[in-house]
DNA sequence: TATGGATATTACCCATGGGTAATCAAAAGT
DNA sequence: ACTTTTGATTACCCATGGGTAATATCCATA
């Protein structure tokens, strides 16, 4: 009542925008809640009923915003990827040696992995999606792997990283980073920035120098 | 026919043993087949019907060997853990510096991660199990983490590993190792031994020396 | 105050798949 | 030869949970 009174004489075009914005916000709320539950309990243990209940609506209401449960899953992954990609692009824009760029990639990747959307990249399973969506996810995962390998190769080429196999190096680094999604808890002892800083150095500490790694 | 002829005059007590052995083999066959499918498709996409079909039996036959689908899942994880634990114990029996023992742990862990049972430790989800089994799994995972941390702390204490936080170091190393379960394919370019050797050096390359890692 | 579009609810459908009951066949024990 | 045990089959049950149809409500607009 107070709300309608405040808007009583407002332009009649504004509410239309508001309604659209409200719709987007609701869609996002559905996605956020679903993702939180997916991460907590695992996709298959979360029911559409539970997602709805937690949002104080009933199940069919959700289908105003997503066509299916799988559609939400796919959206979650894609949103996570978009956010990560955004931060990577912003971070890698500036130049520097291959090693220093790799360090920045590791830092921002690690930080992102501590967020719910970052974790979605690791904790949601593309096998729960249909063929088309799964193919998209796999392509993006390959791209991400390519970024690591390219940066490592770049560092080897410019001499900032000792000669090493980009494929295995990328696997090792990406593995350590992705694992963050499994062990990180929001109430843990380190902030995302501290984790990022730690990993940025830790995961590249063995890459400096000129000589290749060999068994002694 | 040839088979029965060969055993015609054998002791009547032997078949009893044979039957027990046959039973164990069948139980193992069920577990192996289920695990293979779990790894390939994900637990929730594998039906008991499919497991049975692939073994040329019908679904109820499986329930002669396991009480439930979840029981198979738990058994798979535990078998994987047992095999890993076995190899770790055998490997860490001999002495050496903390660093060299950590290297041996990494090597044997990486090798194990390329096997179906090794992958089960990472690709099967304890959230699909009931409370009791889940608690057991989580306890064993904590133990495993403890082995890494203890070895790292040992190396720092004896001077073979530069001062570093055992917790984060263990997370980084275990992450890289566990990730093998996600990317490894049996038809890949490297043998398990080569992967083990590579990782043993790669994941410990940054740990040598005396000075702690600091941002330059 | 009437209209229509958007959004929510109630009540329902139904495919899926884990698990079981009744039964049967074959081998083991006596 | 007979009975019992083991292990497999056929046929079925039924809880779960994603998704939908019909309907109601709200609200801006005319």
Describe this structure in words.
Two copies of one chain form a homodimer. The first copy, chain A, is mainly alpha-helical. The first copy, chain A, is built from ten helices and no strands. In chain A, helix 2 crosses helix 7, helix 6 runs antiparallel to helix 10 and helix 7 packs across helix 9. The N terminus of chain A is likely disordered. At the A-B interface, helix 9 and helix 10 of A face helix 9 and helix 10 of B. The structure holds a DNA duplex (30 and 30 nucleotides).
Features of the shown structure:
homodimer; 216 residues; mainly alpha; 10 helices; elongated; disordered N terminus
DSSP, total strands of chain A: 0
Instruction: Find the structural class of chain A using helix and strand composition.
Output: mainly alpha
Oligomeric state: homodimer
Q: Approximately how much helix is present in the residues of chain A? A: 55-70%
Give a short account of the largest sheet of chain A: none
Report the total helices of chain A.
Answer: 10
Mean pLDDT of chain A: 90
Run of helices and strands of chain A: HHHHHHHHHH
Largest interface: A-B, 36 and 36 residues
- Distance between the amino and carboxyl termini of chain A: 78 Å
